[in-house]
Structure formats: C-alpha cells, structure tokens
Write a structure and sequence with these properties.
Elements: H1 5-29, H2 33-39, H3 41-63, H4 68-71, E1 75-78, E2 81-89, E3 94-95, H5 101-110, H6 118-129, H7 171-178, E4 181-182, H8 197-200, H9 208-216, H10 224-232, E5 244-253, E6 258-267, E7 275-287
Parallel strand pairs: 3-4
Antiparallel strand pairs: 1-2, 2-5, 5-6, 6-7
Helix pairs in contact: 1-3, 5-6
Length: 288
C-alpha cells in the first residue's frame, strides 16, 4: 500500500462534504426566494464546512491513528473555505459516572460551589448513578425528589445536562461545574496532558505548586519532575492514550461567514469507520 493512500482517502471524504455543499447550493438556487431567505446559502456552506472538518478530524484520529497533538490546530482548506480543528482528550474532565467521590468533592470545592457542601454534592451524584435506593450520608434518593418522576435514575448519567436536576444544586453551581465534567471519561481518572489546572486542583492534597507544574510540563514526557508528580498522584491520574476526544471546529467560508461547532468522538471497533460521534453541537451563531 502506498504511504499516501490515507491522505487520498481523507481528501475523498472531504470532497464529499464539498460536493454536498455545491449540490445543496444548486438545489436551493432553483427554489423560491422565500426558501433562500429561510435557509441561507452561506449558512448552508458554513455548516457543510463544519461537517467536513468533523469528518477529517475523526478520520485523522481514528482511521489514520494520528496523535491528537498532530491534529490539534490543523487548518483544513477547502474550495468553499477553511475549518480549524482544536482537539483535547476527554479525560481532561471528571466523569459523573466513573470519577470517585473524592474527586467530585474536590471539584465542587475548587469551583466555589455554594448551594451544597462538597460532601453532599458527591454523595448525591453517587446516589443518582448507583443502582440502589440506599441513601448515602448527605445524599438523596427518590423519596427526596418530591415526586419528580424517575429521579434520581439509579443509573448512569446520560449527559452532563442531567446534573441540573440534582437535588439542591443551584443553576449557578451547575454553570460553574459544567465545563469540568463529562460522561465520556470511562476511567474516571484525569489525564495530566488534557486536564486544566482547576481540574487538577480537584485531586485530594494537590498543591497549587504541583498543579501549576503539571500544567506547565504538559507534553514534556521526558521530564523527571513531571513523572515524579504523576507518580505522587497516581491514584487520580492516568497516562493511557485517550480513546475519546472533544473537537472544537471553527469554519470560515470564502464569503466571510463563520460558525463554530463542538463534537465528542471516540474509537469504536464495532463501527465500519472505526469511530462513533457521541455528541455534536453548533456552539456559535453563523455570523459575518
């Protein structure tokens, strides 16, 4: 097999997105003006750029097996515009289903949560995700949810958004927590390559100095200081290669229209393409 076969395939996948945009534009041009006004050709082109970028990122990460550091920051140039890819491992976030209570407590404390105590927050997350109706100290089970049907689920969180319904948690605290949480970090441990300094500070007994050092030494795998810090906090840190990534995409069409999207994608041996998209959201308006 020629070494450039993968890039030929990638180019083919991207061209499919470009052709889709062209075909869509031609179809729209044949419709009444009202349809054009409602949909907007530029918006359609931008959304197709985002779709093409998502396909390219997934292909590079899972079909080509490239390290995410080589995909992060890459700009994909197409006939209709460009897409910039930003990639980070999802293990940089605490997992609502897998992270231990001590990490959850630490995060709530670190974001300065006000509506619950750190112990109560962790206990109520665990009471939600476990399969029994036995209430933990400061926790909450179904009788505590005042007739809210099906809450807590006594099953895994399906999305971070479900945390909004956690008994006693305020909207403000949810907003403080949201960007540090996921349901796609299967190990529940933190990857020091991807975790923010604030996420690292959720680790029990993590000092400000150690968190700063881990953040500054990110990517320096040969550093003895970094390895010593990982060993020190080994109960909560992992160096396993990520299997799920959060990809942020920024598209800019030739007309100057921009749009942003976010995708969570993971490897899957059961899928023909070798990956599965767990979540896809347009995160910003398409603007001039």
């Amino acid at each position: 097999m020629r070494r450039d076969d993968g890039y030929v395939t990638l180019a083919t996948l991207i061209m499919c997105g470009v052709l889709a945009a062209i075909v869509s534009t031609l179809v729209l041009s044949a419709q009444p003006t009202l349809v054009l006004t409602r949909l907007g050709v530029d918006d359609l082109v931008t959304e197709n750029l985002l779709d093409s970028g998502a396909t390219a990122a997934s292909y590079l990460l899972f079909t080509e097996g490239k390290d995410h550091s080589l995909v992060d920051g890459r700009i994909i140039s197409l006939a209709t515009g460009t897409v910039t890819l930003h990639v980070v491992g999802e293990a940089g976030r605490l997992d609502l289903n897998a992270s231990p209570p001590d990490l959850l407590k630490g995060l709530f404390r670190e974001v300065d949560g006000q509506s619950l105590s750190p112990d109560a927050f962790a206990a109520r997350v665990v009471d939600w995700r476990d399969e029994d109706d036995k209430r933990m100290p400061e926790g909450a089970e179904r009788p505590d949810y005042q007739g809210a049907s099906g809450l807590p689920a006594n099953a895994k969180f399906q999305s971070v958004g479900e945390l909004r319904y956690l008994r006693g948690l305020s909207d403000n605290d949810y907003m403080r927590l949201e960007s540090f949480l996921t349901v796609y970090n299967r190990t529940g441990m933190l990857d020091p390559q991807a975790a923010s300094r604030k996420a690292l500070l959720a680790i029990p007994d993590m000092s400000e100095a150690d968190a700063s050092a881990l953040a500054e030494l990110r990517g320096d795998n040969e550093s003895q200081e970094r390895q010593a810090l990982i060993q020190k906090y080994q109960s909560f840190l992992t160096e396993e290669k990520p299997t799920v990534y959060r990809v942020s995409l920024v598209a800019r069409s030739k007309s100057g229209r921009t749009g942003t999207a976010e995708m969570i994608v993971g490897g899957s041996k059961d899928r023909p393409k070798g990956y599965v998209v767990y979540a896809w959201n347009l995160t910003g308006p398409v603007v001039h």
